[in-house]
């Protein structure tokens, strides 16, 4: 452990962690735009600067380590002035459509401009303008709103291990794009949407959630039904209908990661072809029945087979679309209640 002074208070933290991590551990808020604890340190936005006694320059707290005996100020006059200047520069080169931007209400840049009182960009001049890339079915890309924090680039290469996008050009013309600057599509990207989660602004948008304001949805945490991994996410529910999915960083299995199925395929929930009631075949035709009637029939049929031919005349096949808990209970039922080890699973797990 090391001890140092932060905003006049003594703090004790593990040796080797950054000043930013030390601040967060001690309930001190330092703003960031390019930092993500799951990604490598980038040090690009400089919003996280702090003043360290004895250091001539302000220090990027996301990449500077906390040291024994140091004296740090996270919100000094000098720090606040630099943060305001950075935000002013970013906002001066940003579309002024916050009223109608899809990200409004959950935009990192908007939140920080609000916190530091940046109402309009004071740096006049050319503003970057790029055509919106919306040719694919799931994602909209507006590079005019990109602040070059590089989170999308790092999540794509470090978490998704795809490297579908990277920085190109220099200075004012810098932007994030695909190889040969092609539109994002299944040729050059897996469409996993990890970059959408990482993006702090409206540069990358989940098209499914377009037109839905973040405060209109109720978030309901659930387990993904697409495989047995057990990822959690939040169903976004508006007017009693699931309209999309957003990751929940508190998910123990997957954190903020989601695959393409988990993130986008909610359409089956409201599909009119979906079977929502049990069907029993009567005279060669499937007829809708109540759950009571269906379960009684299953119990009776299984009992009859077991009595006449023994448990091993029965086999059970379970599904990766059930939770691990459902699958556990199913194999228990087969082994204990029906007395057979004839139990398998569509994914052989
Ligand atoms: Fe530290 Fe961006 S958060 S430089």
**Assembly type of the shown chains?**
single chain
The largest sheet has its strands arranged as: 2-1-5-3-4
How far the N terminus sits from the C terminus, by CA atoms, comes to 44 Å
Give the helix tally: 8
Unreliable sequence segments? none
Helices and strands: which structural class? alpha+beta
Bound ions, cofactors and other small molecules, one mention each: FE2/S2 (inorganic) cluster
* Mean pLDDT level: 94
Instruction: Give the helix level as a range of percent.
Output: 10-25%
Order of helices and strands: EEHEEEHHEHEEHEEEEHEEHEHE
Could you explain how this protein is built, in words?
The protein has 349 residues and is of the alpha+beta class. Among the domains are: 2-75, Roll (Ubiquitin-like (UB roll)), CATH 3.10.20; 217-274, ADC-like domains (N-terminal domain of TfIIb, Single Sheet); 310-349, no CATH class. Helix content is 24%, strand content 19%. The chain has helices at residues 19-25, 77-92, 108-116, 151-159, 194-198, 260-264, 291-309, 324-337, and strands spanning 2-6, 9-13, 49-52, 59-60, 71-73, 139-141, 165-168, 175-178, 204-206, 218-223, 232-238, 241-246, 279-282, 285-288, 316-318, 343-345. The chain has a 5-stranded mixed β-sheet, with helices on both faces. Strands 10-11-12 form a 3-stranded antiparallel β-sheet. Helix 2 (77-92) packs across helix 3 (108-116). It is elongated, with a radius of gyration of 27 Å. The mean pLDDT is 94. FE2/S2 (inorganic) cluster is lined by residues 32-35, 43-48, 60, 62.
């Amino acid at each position: 452990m090391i001890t140092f002074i932060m905003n006049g208070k003594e703090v004790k933290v593990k040796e080797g962690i950054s000043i930013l991590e030390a601040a967060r551990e001690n309930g001190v808020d330092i703003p960031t735009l390019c930092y993500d604890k799951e990604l490598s340190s980038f040090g690009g936005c400089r919003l996280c600067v702090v003043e360290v006694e004895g250091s001539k320059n302000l220090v990027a707290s996301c990449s500077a380590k906390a040291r024994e005996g140091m004296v740090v100020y996270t919100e000094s006059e000098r720090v606040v002035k630099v943060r305001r200047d950075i935000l002013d520069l970013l906002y001066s080169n940003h579309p002024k459509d916050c009223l109608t931007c899809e990200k409004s209400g959950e935009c990192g840049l908007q939140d920080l401009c609000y916190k530091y009182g940046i109402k309009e960009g004071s740096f006049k001049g050319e503003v970057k303008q790029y055509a919106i890339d919306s040719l694919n079915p799931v994602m909209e890309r507006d590079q005019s709103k990109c602040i070059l924090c590089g989170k999308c680039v790092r999540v794509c290469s470090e978490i998704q291990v795809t490297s579908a996008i990277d920085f190109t050009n220099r200075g004012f013309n810098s932007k994030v794009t695909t190889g040969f600057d092609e539109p994002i599509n299944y040729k050059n990207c897996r469409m996993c949407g990890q970059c959408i989660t990482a993006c702090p602004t409206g540069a990358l948008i989940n098209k499914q959630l377009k037109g839905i304001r973040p405060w209109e949805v109720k978030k309901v945490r659930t387990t993904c039904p697409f495989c047995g991994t057990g990822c959690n996410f939040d169903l976004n529910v508006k007017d009693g209908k699931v309209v999309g999915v957003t990751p929940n960083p508190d998910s123990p299995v997957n954190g903020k990661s989601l695959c393409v199925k988990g993130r986008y395929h909610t359409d089956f929930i409201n599909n009119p072809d979906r079977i929502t009631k049990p069907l029993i075949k009567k005279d060669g035709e499937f007829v809708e029945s109540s759950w009571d009637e269906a379960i009684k029939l299953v119990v009776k049929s299984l009992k009859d087979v077991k009595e006449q031919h023994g448990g091993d005349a029965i086999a059970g096949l379970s599904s990766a679309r059930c939770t691990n808990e459902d699958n556990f209970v199913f194999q228990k039922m087969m082994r204990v209640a029906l007395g057979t080890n004839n139990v398998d699973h569509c994914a052989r797990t």
